[in-house]
């Protein structure tokens, strides 16, 4: 008997998304507090975020990263060991950084967890001993990266794309880190760990009326201070497509990145079309770049594309690590696929699958308290409409193939692309020169240099 084909299942109805809205209040010092009651599980999550603008650290780059490592080592009231022992006893999790703090615990310990989080964040105990220990770890990490081709490539990509004077273009080196002192850590904390741009989100099995007075008591004494305001020149794309090459003689592969600067806000009408276009280009296994460079040619383990979004300038980057012998050919294929998404409409099937993936991931995440907290924060910090996430599925489904192509033309600026390649010059440069794309040479720190001697 011949088996009968089963009919394809019909897609179900679009799920209705109901995201709980936070109850909010603002402390006198400017800290904005958002509380979401969710009594499904006896847990609570507290998330303190300082939504500060990026700032340059210049010849002491590394101060902020080192500050993140030092905040949370106990407090001025509780020793590091006693602090950690109590967390273990409560079965809680607390972490700190220079941009805020995070805590998670059973809801019956919510008051104590908030107290510990506030104490660690607002009364950090910066000691010379911990400073020396963490600084030594960071220096060891930097030394380990000296010959790492991906680390070199990433550093040079940002330095050239944004400029070394820009917060997104500077990088931590042994030289800049050695300049950092404990006094710099304390000054960085005083200047930037302030409630001016702070958001405290509490979500879980708590009652607003009970939590509000606790927050007022714990965070109300946080002194109001203004953050130093610095305006940086907007980075610009190159005026014509060019290769920026970094010679790494020990490289066995070439790290290739095609980069443009962009300023894409989540509130922009192009946000979803641009995100979907990027996903189609290099977002998953079936993307244009991966199917070409990996599946068709076998040159790489994977190729991808990412696009940044938010209030500040960021970048669009397509990248891959390929065999040295095919570096020039890979550049040709990168350009081909970017031109393809700019000129051809994506097929209905590909667009449908990508949309379904976005919606599926969103539906799964929206059940998680961490995601709800992040959505509430995004609405506040990114200036999004209140119903942004309720309309998320509808907005995704409304994106057309023409929208994708339009966004690709707006953000994938192939005629103004910086192609950054870190690889073994003696193996790679002769092939690149045949492409007739102008080549400029840089050292491992992103400084202009001469063409390496090829033997």
Distance between the termini: 70 Å
Return the string of H and E elements: EEEHHEEHHHHHEHEEHHEEHHHHHEHEE
Average of the residue pLDDT scores: 93
Give Rg in angstroms: 25 Å
Q: Low-confidence spans: pLDDT under 50, at least 5 residues?
A: 1-5
Physical arrangement of strands within the biggest beta sheet? 9-10-8-11-7-12-13
Kindly describe this structure.
It comes from Flavobacterium soyangense. This is Insulinase family protein. The protein is an alpha+beta fold and about 450 residues long. It contains 16 helices and 13 strands. The protein has a 7-stranded mixed β-sheet with strand order 9-10-8-11-7-12-13, sandwiched between helices. Strands 1-2-6-3-5-4 form a 6-stranded mixed β-sheet, sandwiched between helices. Helix 1 crosses helix 7 (about 180-190), helix 3 runs parallel beside helix 8 and helix 9 (about 270-280) crosses helix 15.
Blueprint (SSEs and pairs):
Layout: E1 23-26, E2 32-37, E3 43-50, H1 63-70, H2 80-90, E4 93-97, E5 100-106, H3 110-122, H4 128-144, H5 149-162, H6 174-178, H7 182-192, E6 198-204, H8 208-219, E7 242-247, E8 253-262, H9 271-282, H10 288-296, E9 303-307, E10 314-323, H11 327-343, H12 348-365, H13 369-381, H14 392-397, H15 401-411, E11 418-423, H16 425-433, E12 439-442, E13 448-449
Parallel strand pairs: 2-6, 7-11, 7-12
Antiparallel strand pairs: 1-2, 3-5, 3-6, 4-5, 8-10, 8-11, 9-10, 12-13
